[in-house]
Structure formats: structure tokens, C-alpha cells
Amino acid sequence: MKEEVKNKIYEAVESLKDELVKTVSDLVQIKSVTPEFGYEPEKTFGGERKVSEYLKSLMDKEGIATDIFEAEGFAGRASLVGVYKGTGEGKSLMFNGHIDVVPPGDIEQWNGEDPFSGRIDDEYVHGRGSVDMKGGNAAALFALKALLKAGYKPKGDIVFQNAVGEECKVTEAGTGACLEHGPLADAAIVCEPTSTDAIPFEINTAQPGVFEMKWSVKGKSCHAARRGEVIRDGGLGEEAGVDAIEKGMIIYNAVKDLERKWGQTKKHKLYKQGYFCINCATIDAGVGRSLVSDNIEMSYSLFYPPQETPESIKNEIEAHIKNACLNDDWLVKNPPKVEWIFNWPSFDIAQEEEICKLAQKAVRTVVPAGGELTGMFAVSDASFIAEKNIPVIILGPGEGKYAHVAGEKIAISQLVEAAKIYALIIAQWCGIE
């Protein structure tokens, strides 16, 4: 890219800085909390639509064709698809991001600040959704806005997907629905925050799979005063009762042992040894303190390597649980019930893909210390895009450590840098004239 072109793009982005920052602040002030959380529904339901309407108003001004739509069965939850038609034969590029946010959590931890204030200071825009991920969505739109202001038009189409439902895995309402709606593109960028304390603007080319599951065990209830008969040598044992919690701990400890094993056996070149884990998330047991418990249920989230299949993970877990029960007569006769709730698919694209190389060059042009190719620490909608055989990366402004926490914020400097990076990627990938 000629230096003159780059400088004109930079100047255009800088001239739009205040407008970009105000846009992020305005978006934060819209309470688009995912309805599944049940957070103040009378104040937050419909917030996703309001975000879509706000972004549509901006897109309309730039000549972007837009469609706000609700997936079947999700009334009141509106995603936005925008398409800027290119001028020629350039390759198309998609920018994807979710517009829903998590609840603010414990209000006291916000130290008196309104979680949805959108407050702007010299360095940050503050509030829920600023970094995850309304800042990234705005930066992508302003990248195109800056290119047009600088006098350049993309040759390839630019597709914007602003989707609902990501925070509670409702892809059929959000990104999945946007992909079905179309159009698709030759490559995609998911604008989630990818900076860390050490490295700005990492480029995620992979993410783990995440399986959610639970198991339950039944016992046999009796009065708590008869517990001695249940557990002591010479007691009545199963005739009196069976402590489901104790039986469940056999399985819990076995799964914990497997997690320790995973620390050595589950590997991927983009992830630190020991990253892949089996997180016990919830425990539900018993009905009251005066009874020996007759039930226990534990739920889990399993983070597994991108190269492994969901079926292989299921088989591994179920076989391990089955083996753990073999030495207990009650569990042999009353095996645990294992239920698989949801699988968030992984993705892992070749780092030799052109979009990876081009994005890395763009990042290092704007932020020389950035651009390391890494794996996403959590999950995103990128995996659903990858399932459509679209080369996809995750690259966006902000530090992931500020997502989902009290005091969420995004650096203004990174918003501007992200807009420059995205604009350079558009220019190089789609071509400009």
C-alpha cells in the first residue's frame, strides 16, 4: 500500500475519533442484556432491537443496505445485517459481532457508577458492553466510514452482522440466523476483544470447543438420625438408605482425576499446557438437613482442543464415569444419568490463510508490537462462521480481562487503532478505488 493512501486513511479515522467514541458511549447506554439472564426484563427486553436500530441509522448514512430481522421463534430480538456493495471484482469481507451483553452483576462492585453510563474520560469509554463488544462493532463500521471519507471505495462487498444471543449461546437467534439470512463472504473477522496486558491486538486463529453436560445419581432417603445404619460397618447399609452425595463424590473425584490427566494429555500449539479443563460449575443435592440425601446432580463445562471431535470427548467422559462406578455395588445397579446439554464447536484455521497474513501485516503496520497469532481464550461466534467454510479470524479492540467484570471499559486509543487496522484490511483484501 502506498504511504499516501495509508496516511489518508489514518487522517480520516482520526477525524472521526470523537464520533466513534460517542457512538460506543451511546451503544453502552442501551441496555441490551441477553433476555435469558432474566435481568430487569421490563427495562432491558428490546434492547437488542434498539442497538440494531441505532446502528442501522449510521449505516443508512453511508449507503449500506440494511435489514433488521427477527429469527423465527425469537420475537422482539432483532439482529442487523448490512451490506455495502463493492464497485468491482474485489473479494468480500464480513465483520461479525454480537450486540447483546451480560448483566452488570453486583452493582456495589461498580463503586457507585451506573453500569450503563457510557461515561467517557481521557482514556476510556466505561460501561457494560463497551469492550464486549460494542466497541468492536463500532470500530468496524467506522473503518468503512473512514475509507469513504478518505475518498476510497471498496471493490468487494462489505458485510456487517450485528447479532443477538451470543452471550447465552442462542446462535439460532443471532449469528446462525444471520448466516442463514446472508449474504456470506470470502473471509470474516469477528470483532471480539483480543488484546492482553502483554500483546495488543492478538489475532485468534483458533478457539476451543466447549461442551456443557451434567450427571445425576439417585440414592435412597432416610431420616438423618439413621445415618449410622447407612455408613457404619455392621449397619443395615442399603436396606436403611444410601447417601447420594457420597456416591456422587465417587464420580466427582474420578472426573477431577481425569481433569488432572487432561493437563498433560490435551494439547494444542496455540494454548498453554494445562489450559484444557473440566469445570464443575453447579451442584444440586438433597432436600433438607433432616434427611440422608437421595439425589445429587453436578453440571460441567468442558474446554477441549480444537482438533478433537465432540463425539470423542463424550465417549471419553462417559467411559471414565462408567469405570469409576465399577467398584461400587450401588452405582453398578444404579448407574448415573449423563446428559449432554450443548456443544459450542471449536474452529482452527490454517495460519497460512491469506486473511491471517494480511491481518497480521495490517496490525503490525498500525501497532508494531501486536499481531501475534494465538488461540481464543474463550469462545465466540467465529466457530459458526467457520462451519460455513469461511476463513475467519477473531481480532478486535480492548482487553479481554475487562469483559464480564464490574468496571468494564475499553481504551479509546484501541478503538481508533482498530478502525485503522480494519480499514487497512478492507483496502488490501477487498481492494479500493
Annotation keywords:
Alpha-Beta Plaits; 13 helices; Aminopeptidase; alpha/beta; 433 residues; 36% helix; six-stranded mixed sheet; four-stranded antiparallel sheet
Describe this structure in words.
This protein is α/β, with parallel strands linked by helices. Helix content is 36%, strand content 19%. Helix 2 runs antiparallel to helix 5 (130-149). A six-stranded mixed sheet has the order 1-2-5-3-6-14, with helices on both faces. A four-stranded antiparallel sheet has the order 9-10-8-11, covered by helices on one side. Strands 12-7-13 form a three-stranded mixed sheet. The mean pLDDT is 97. It contains 13 helices and 15 strands. The protein is elongated and about 90 Å long.
Give the topology, please.
Layout: H1 3-15, H2 17-28, H3 41-44, H4 47-61, E1 65-70, E2 78-84, E3 93-98, E4 124-126, H5 130-149, E5 158-163, H6 175-181, E6 188-190, E7 203-207, E8 209-218, H7 227-231, H8 244-265, E9 278-285, E10 295-304, H9 310-325, H10 329-333, E11 337-344, E12 347-348, H11 354-366, E13 373-375, H12 382-386, E14 392-394, E15 409-411, H13 412-429
Parallel strand pairs: 3-5, 3-6, 6-14, 7-13
Antiparallel strand pairs: 1-2, 2-5, 4-15, 7-12, 8-10, 8-11, 9-10
Helix pairs in contact: 1-5, 1-13, 2-5, 5-13, 8-9, 11-13
